[in-house]
Design goal:
Blueprint (H helix, E strand, L loop, with lengths): L2 H15 L5 E8 L4 E8 L4 E7 L8 H13 L7 E5 L9 E5 L15 H16 L15 H17 L4 H13 L7 E3 L8 E3 L4 E4 L6 E3 L2 H11 L6 H12 L5 H19 L1 H6 L6 H25 L3
Antiparallel strand pairs: 1-2, 2-3, 3-5, 4-5, 6-9, 7-8
């Protein structure tokens, strides 16, 4: 698999590094759905990760991911140093960027366990990400008051472009989310996919958050709700997560907030997953693309509709 990309990647890296170092090891180290991560070792001893898009999956861009990861790194948040970006797709056939390789404790792909010390540090560092002053590194747009509404519209646009037609349940959910959106108490860098499996650690401390493709400016409650109900749900129970947020970060989330952002995250998942159908029929014929774009997409729609029906505010 590495042979077709070795030569063009090596040539591109030499131009960026301004030297003649060669690639001595190139192999895939992650099987993520939206990006392929390739370990790259150079004859100079430098080690990188080339993060390559896979057919526009999830409606996210390398350019935006690179910008948020770079901002987080520059602001002292745990993130690998992003070095260079290739935003055209002309080199490898897909857009990509290259970051420094970060060593950490290796765990199984499906391992969602966290020691108490690591859980504390993770929540602490996530809260720091939310609170850091991003204004010098990121453009917040003309107004920050409507960040939640912009995210709703963003994901509605993603699904409409992917589907080519309207899906009434998603349109109704977008209207519900707009209607019940509360003005954020504060706005920060939202990771968008935080939790076990998406950070590198040494067993007790977070070294780097990974997978920044969903990062944006918004209400940090989105991240905490996603952690409780999705990525961290197998790690510990909801009440334990909520108590941990309050103890470590002085963050309190009530039932209304948790319900709203649970609907939002299911809506986002349904919209993003629909893009996998187009990827499967064009550039990415992996079976998981078809499953994500159909079965998982429908799972999120059912979850979203059920939450609105049984827990909507009156």
């Amino acid at each position: 698999m590495a042979d077709p990309i070795r030569d063009p990647l090596e040539s591109w890296l030499r131009e960026r590094r301004r030297d003649s170092a060669s690639i001595v090891d190139l192999h895939r180290i992650a099987t993520g759905n939206s990006r392929a991560n390739w370990f790259v070792a150079m004859s100079s001893g430098d080690r990188y990760v080339a993060r390559v898009e896979q057919g526009g999956v999830f409606g996210t861009s390398s350019a935006e991911e690179f910008a948020f990861q770079r901002a987080a790194h520059q602001l002292g948040c745990p993130a690998a140093h992003p070095r260079w970006i290739e935003p055209t797709g002309a080199v490898l056939g897909q857009r990509f960027f290259v970051m420094d390789y970060v060593d950490g404790v290796a765990t199984g792909r499906d391992d969602r366990s966290m020691s108490p010390a690591l859980a504390d540090d993770f929540v602490r560092r996530l809260d720091e990400l939310h609170r850091v002053d991003y204004s010098a590194q990121l453009d917040s747009g003309s107004s920050t008051d409507d960040v939640t509404h912009r995210q709703i519209d963003r994901w509605a646009d993603v699904y409409r472009q992917a589907a080519g037609a309207r899906i009434p349940l998603l349109d109704e959910a977008a209207a519900w989310l707009h209607h019940y959106a509360a003005e954020p108490e504060r706005i920060g860098i939202v990771h968008g996919d935080p939790g076990p499996g998406n950070f590198i650690h040494d067993g007790s401390r977070v070294i780097a958050f990974t997978d920044w493709e969903f990062a944006h400016l918004g209400d940090p409650t989105e991240d905490f709700a996603y952690l409780v109900t999705m990525r961290g749900a197998r790690t510990m129970a909801r009440d334990r997560w909520l108590a941990l947020f309050e103890r470590v970060a002085s963050v309190t989330i009530d039932d209304t907030e948790l319900h709203y952002w649970s609907v939002f995250n299911a809506f986002k998942g349904a919209c993003a997953n629909l893009t996998c159908v187009g990827a499967f029929t064009s550039t990415n014929r992996a079976p998981n693309m078809a499953l994500i774009g159909t079965a998982l997409h429908q799972t999120y729609i059912r979850q979203m509709a059920g939450l609105i029906e049984t827990g909507g505010r009156r």
